[in-house]
UniProtKB/TrEMBL annotation:
Residues 1-20 form the signal peptide. It comes from Paractinoplanes toevensis. This is Oxidoreductase. Keywords: Signal. The keyword Nucleotide-binding does not apply. Residues 68-363 form the Glucose/Sorbosone dehydrogenase domain. PROSITE patterns: PROKAR_LIPOPROTEIN. It comes from the Bacteria. Residues 26-54 are annotated as: Disordered. Coiled coil: none annotated.
Amino acid sequence: MIVRSRRARAMALSLGAVLALTTACSFGPPDPDEQGTPPNLPKPSAALPSGESGGDQEVAVTVLAKNLEIPWGMTFLPDGAALVTERDTGRILQVGPESDANGLKVTEVQRLAEVQAAGDGGLLGIAVSPKYPTDKTIFVYYSTAKDNRIGKLVLKGALQPILTGIPRSRDDNGGALAFGPDGYLYAGTGDATATGTQAQNPKSLAGKILRMTTAGKPAPGNPVKDSLVWSSGHRNVQGFAWGGDRKMYATENAQPKFGELNVIEKGKNYGWGKVDGTGTDPTFTNPLRTWPIAESYCAGVALVEQSVASACLLGERIWMLSVTGNGTVLGTPQALLTGEYGRLRGLVSAPDGSLWASTSNQEDGGKPTPDDDRIVRLVFSGGGAGIT
């Protein structure tokens, strides 16, 4: 069903860079000659308000998959199929590109017996090798009974750890995992404490963003030679992404007062556990944007042109910010889907330009519906995500 919105002039302003992507105005993926053959997607199931003031801008939301169990990481294979991890079951699922009566076809690829889920630990981030057409390799971030690890595998094959000893706890295990535009593998870790002592310890892997080779070794050009650490002073990094200008954005959640969206720079210290939100100590790098924790606690991050989106758990929304070329916020951030789908965790840019978000309502604190957990697709009318 399509529900017309009467409230989005502010959104149209803040998404100016997004909406400038195209002059077309219908929903759906790009033409095949522009973006490749897209999966056979279901039709939009709802069009929801995209802002808080007057106008007629719409966001079409399509439920792509239902009845998942705490989906966590999402990434895409070259054929357009998505790989999705489930935190507690340890399963890797393939979503699409084929569809069935319920949406995109969901198939269990394999279940990783090495995963020991507890609290917010389990099977977390997932990344596809940049050389996948030849090496067929997938990388995952996962928890064991003693630590958090990063491993690699060929699907349906054995899991091989490449990095072990990342501190774990019941909470704050991080889990973000993705290849950067430089071809190296980045991982976001949690501080695994309530005090932030490990986040400020340069010898600890906790509370950091790590940068490594596909063998799990420190990447050339890291701030300190023979160290995996790219940035420090993090409480819990569960999502990051890069813009077209190679600027890196990352969320920070689980702090007592404020959720953060940070611009990540080589060797910078982001303050936890000395600072919660914006501080005055020049030793630490201030966030690009903060929100009260009840409105944020964000995880996944995705970029569309000059707009940065982050999916929030406690806030039950997607925050979207337009940013200038130098990385400052333009206008007022806008909230999407507030309260519509419950807790939102994963957020990625799909190959067709749309945004895919996952819910996290089956975990503690969630209020699952009979369809949860779900993966939904966002397409903006008039262009933007899901350009046509």
